[in-house]
Amino acid sequence: MGDIVNGHYDGSNDSVTEIMASLDSYSEIIDGWAWRVAETFVRDIDRQNAKEWRQYSSDIGAEIRNIVENTPTGHAIRSLVEEQVRYIKSLPLEAADRIYDIHNRAIEAVVSGGRAKPFADEIAASGDVAKSRAALIARTETGRASTALTQIRALSLGSEGYIWRTADDGDVRHSHDLMNGKFVRWDSPPVLDGMTGHAGALPNCRCYCEVIFPRVPFAMKRAA
Question: H or E segment at 185?
Fold first, then answer.
């Protein structure tokens, strides 16, 4: 995306139109690649999540382990893959919208007697902005996918909820720290900082679910 933008913006409406059209086309060009990446991403998380459950097999017993290993996760996996594809393909579209907005602000600045260069620099940095956005999505979606699969497997065993656990370090957000040790029902995710979600499923969240069963509690701690 940085290559598409760099060197093409000259302050004119035509250059903005050209960049936006190229980014729109790029979003469609990467469709097949996005599906391959998303499927690999979600399958890897599913394997890791299943491995974590197996590590606790001695605690939950053979009969319960059989239920966990045969829990139908196919629908959730397909849904997660589709969402990852949407996120990947949205990056160039978000970049196009951002460039359009910056260009309009540049025009307003020039009309008011200001300079256009700061806005041109903003547009040139679009590749870095998209990269940062992609990194945030990757971190957030890793946790969200893991939590979703944990929830499905926990529900199959009759779990009604979990104990919220934090990473227990200085980077834990205050709102998440307040949740530490609290019981959360699967059907009632909390609202933190204006966002609704379970432990590990919110942006940049490193918290995890300590799954609670009617008789056997154990922690499903996601690998770092």
Answer: strand 183-185
